[in-house]
Design brief:
This protein is mostly helical. It has two domains: 115 residues; 134 residues, no CATH class. Helices cover 72% and strands 0% of the residues.
């Protein structure tokens, strides 16, 4: 069955009994799994995938499949899978209608008694973090800054204490640091930086709440801590200097927590960041 035929079958099911809600959910999950495991080879293939995603959303909405509390785990899998499809290329931005639906879906689940669900909170935070990536890429491209996640991301005071020892006299060092701070603060007032902070604020808040909820539930994983650390690093990079330090320090603390989880390995970038700056925090 090709994509068009499958979409029609899901929407109409001609000449057969109507599918039960559980059967529809099973079909949707299987289709999302198939899409995730099949590489995209061309623009036409991508558009077909997005067409299927929109068909799935119509079906979900028409049957109110997100309103059934007994299907919570399946609902999470569906929304997460659609969110992945929406952000197939984060540097170019997400597919707005699908991404916005996913955010609304997570908020609906949260309003249905799951306000303390680490998975729901993480889904919302991840959605905002994915949404901001296009803006961060634009900042990095035009300003040559480290805001999109390069190896030079660092707390300014930590960098000052670790990199320039012995390279200048104390007064030259102070002048250079002041100059860099002034330039960074000037950039932080730009439109892209303001836009980025507007998206990273909910990203950091929801991911922090997710970490706290997972800690309470005993389900904290390194992948969540790494995701939260990335959000806080990005927020530090687009903030004014007098605010950035708190975000960098929180990122380092999350990386320290992730590093202590047995059998979890940080990405090379995050591990190098932790190696460089983790020793400077208690």
């Amino acid at each position: 069955m090709n994509d068009h035929d499958w979409t029609e079958a899901l929407d109409h099911e001609p000449n057969s009994r109507p599918l039960t809600d559980n059967e529809v959910i099973t079909e949707i999950l299987q289709r999302l799994q198939d899409l995730d495991s099949t590489p995209t080879s061309a623009q036409a293939d991508l558009q077909a995938r997005l067409s299927i995603a929109r068909s799935l959303i119509r079906r979900i909405d028409s049957l109110s499949l997100l309103s059934s509390p007994e299907r919570f785990e399946s609902q999470l899998q569906i929304v997460s899978g659609l969110q992945n499809l929406a952000y197939y290329d984060t540097a170019q931005g997400g597919v707005e209608d699908i991404a916005s639906w996913c955010l609304r879906a997570y908020l609906q689940l949260m309003a249905q008694g799951h306000e303390d669900s680490a998975e729901v909170l993480a889904g919302i935070g991840r959605g905002w973090l994915l949404r901001v990536q296009a803006t961060l890429a634009r900042i990095h491209r035009y300003d040559g800054s480290s805001s999109s996640g390069t190896s030079s991301d660092r707390p300014s005071s930590m960098a000052n204490s670790t990199e320039r020892v012995g390279s200048f006299t104390a007064s030259e060092d102070a002048r250079e640091f002041a100059r860099q701070t002034i330039e960074a603060n000037a950039r932080a007032g730009g439109a892209d930086y303001v836009e980025a902070r507007g998206m990273l604020l909910p990203a950091t808040e929801y991911l922090q709440r997710s970490v706290e909820a997972a800690e309470r539930n005993g389900t904290l994983e390194g992948s969540l801590l790494s995701l939260a650390a990335e959000a806080f690093l990005s927020m530090g990079n687009v903030s004014y200097s007098h605010h950035s330090e708190q975000y960098f320090q929180m990122a380092v603390r999350y990386l320290q927590m992730a590093h202590r989880i047995p059998d979890y390995r940080l990405s090379p970038y995050l591990q190098s960041y932790l190696d460089e700056f983790g020793r400077l925090l208690p």
